[in-house]
Amino acid sequence: MEVMRIDPSKPGEAVTPEVADRLGALYESQGSGAVRLAYFLTGDVHIAQDIAQEAFTRVGRKLLGLRDPEHSRAYLFRTVVNLCRGRARKQKSERSALQALNARPSYPGPDPAERDEMWQALLGLPIRQRTALFLRYYQDLSEAQAAEALGCSVGAVKSLVNRGLTSLRTRFEGSVGD
Amino acid sequence: VTDIEARLRATLGARMDAIEAPRYLDERVRERARRGHLVAIVAATSMIVVVVIGAAIGLRLLIDRAATGPRPHPGPAHSGYPITPHANGRIAYTANGDTGLELHLVKPDGSDDEVIPTPSDGEPWHVAWSPDGSQLALSIFPRGQGDRAIWVMNADGTDPLKLAAAENVSSPTWSPDGAEVVYTADTGARTEIHRAAANGSYDEVVHGEEAEGTFAIFSAQLSPDGLQLLFDRGTDAGFDLFVMSADGGEARPLTTTGDDYDPSWSPDGAKIAFGREEIVESNGRSVATSDIFVMNADGTGVTRLTDGGDEATHYSPTWAPDGTKIAFVAGVTGGPGPVVVMNADGTDENELIHSDVIGVSWGPRP
């Protein structure tokens, strides 16, 4: 089904109740992915929910205008990543958390397994490596799809994934396969 | 599929599947979208009004100019300010106090520390001395929601003047002649470098672009001769240092590591001190540290000045006006920390201010 193209620059064509309903439906289908990515990048589920909401309200109308669902997902994920990085940058400008995205998560979670070694190791990876691993190993995106979501080349995705896996291997050397 | 990949998939699956987008967000997204619609209509209407008023003002200016000839550009045309040595004066810093952040002045030997009153209801985050040591520029952040602002005032806190406000503003810096304050401002997805008259008579955007989040410009500073703008901004690799002409134009990268920020010209313009983030392994974890580095003004000869260890977040280097020393905030694990003063070659570190400091600027003797 072809999705109606909406020009965000024309306020008169902006959010009618019908469009708002479609936006809500889009949120239902892609909201979880956005929240999970934000959670993986911030380590805080409440902040992740805020970021996902912000991402939808910022680019929701633009997403509805995209004909290809794959493009809208890539665009949404890229927005989530930028908002997560923006949040870290804002903290950096406030000198309160320079290493926020590389630090221990502030939300340990109720599950004891939340603190397992692999999870901690993942949260210690640089944000773009983390995003690449999320897209490839959780969302099961192809390298080309991940490249679109990250706004980089396929080669860069390969490099990010490779560097992330290498860090994990180094980290778990001696414990992998135990 | 390797063991590590299988373990990665299992961990991500276990963690992520437990996270759902809450239902209530659905309604919040719709509601905000509807509100956004109203805002868009108001914005469009406002824009039409602004365009009409702007056209009327422009027409009036054209008529005036035809009658009186062109007005001089507010920034004086010159081939570079003379670089004049200054003796070291007091250090200004912002630090946590009883009621939030406070502005202090202290002599370089640590004596005569005093709290200076600051304008408005917000907290002073960043501070910069004017070149003649008579005034201070400040970024004031609101205690709650609201825009962040740039202020100028006398060094004793009198005659405060609000120069600008935006969603986010950087630490301000001064032009070498003290006539302008340079700052960066972010609003929505737009990031800009401004040169504003310190007396509030004009505020020019010398560079603006669509770039949000970490891609925004963090801070900007004119070279001591006034010919170049030095700034740090986000890139695909992280954040790096750039220079461009003082009036804007094409940016030229000075560093490409993706880890460099908080640049500061030496008083003679020959060197640039800056913060560099590094990822190090500590107790089995990757942690981000930050130390102070220095390089030649053309980007060559990068040299480490501090090595604070796994928990160090050294940032905000500020040169002594005579160029012999550098002060910086020796933060710990991303937070505030004391001010440390060292020789410009990194030797002889001494903790000068023992508070939780956020911003620091070393002023000249008036």
Give the fraction of residues assigned to helices of chain A. Answer: 55-70%
Please tell me what the overall shape of chain B is: globular
Kindly name the structural category of chain B: alpha+beta
The biggest beta sheet of chain B, please? 7 strands, antiparallel
Question: What is the percent of helical residues of chain B?
Answer: 10-25%
The residue ranges of chain A in which pLDDT falls below 50 over 5 or more consecutive positions are 1-15, 92-115
Largest sheet of chain A: none
Question: Got a strand count of chain A?
Answer: 0
Describe it.
- The complex is a heterodimer of chains A (178) and B (366).
- Chain A is mostly helical.
- Helix content of chain A is 65%, strand content 0%.
- Chain A contains 7 helices and no strands.
- The radius of gyration of chain A is 18 Å and the shape is globular.
- Mean pLDDT of chain A is 69; it is low at 1-15 and 92-115.
- Chain B is built from 2 helices and 24 strands.
- In chain B, β9 and β10 (180-187) form a beta hairpin.
- The termini of chain B are far apart.
- Chains A and B meet through α1, α2, α3, α4 and α5 of A and α1, α2, β19 and β21 of B.
